[in-house]
Amino acid sequence: RWAPDLIRRLVKASWPKGTLINVNFPDREADDVAAPRICALGQRKVGNGFVRNVDPRGRAYYWLGNMREDESAAADSDIGIIRRGGISVTPIHLDLTHHNAMARLGKALE
């Protein structure tokens, strides 16, 4: 019930080039869902181990982390909002380069 109107509103809005919009809906009945909120990404510990599995073609693959730990996620992050039954909307910039670190590392290599 929430998705059509939310998507229409987001499509009408403008956002910078190279940005995508990450939308998460909680696993609840529509009447129990809180209104969408703009938020930052939360951080969670993925886990410590590798889980070995086999794909349908019989090839082994490994999944990092056999559990998620998100208890420490900030209340105003996407994880916190979803945990409380809200819809999280996060603009994500596709450039993951840490530009400040580039400058510092560049000096180290001089």
Give a structural overview:
The chain is α+β, with helices and mostly antiparallel strands and 110 residues long. It is 24% helix and 26% strand. It contains 3 helices and 5 strands. The strands form 2 sheets. The chain has a 3-stranded mixed beta sheet with strand order 1-5-2. The chain has a two-stranded antiparallel ribbon with strand order 3-4. A hairpin with a 5-residue loop joins strand 3 and strand 4 (60-64). The longest helix has 10 residues, at 3-12. It is extended. It starts with a helix and ends with a helix. The model has no long low-confidence stretch (mean pLDDT 88).
Secondary-structure blueprint:
Elements: H1 3-12, E1 19-24, E2 34-38, E3 50-54, E4 60-64, H2 78-83, E5 86-93, H3 99-108
Parallel strand pairs: 2-5
Antiparallel strand pairs: 1-5, 3-4
How many beta-strand runs? 5
Portion of residues within helices: 10-25%
Mean pLDDT equals: 88
Backbone shape: extended
Spans of at least 5 consecutive residues whose pLDDT stays below 50 are none
Characterize the biggest β-sheet: 3 strands, mixed
Q: How are strands sequenced across the largest beta sheet?
A: 1-5-2
Distance N terminus to C terminus?
A: 57 Å
CA-atom Rg in angstroms: 19 Å
Continuous helix count: 3
Structural class designation: alpha+beta
Order of helices and strands: HEEEEHEH
What is the beta-strand fraction? 25-35%
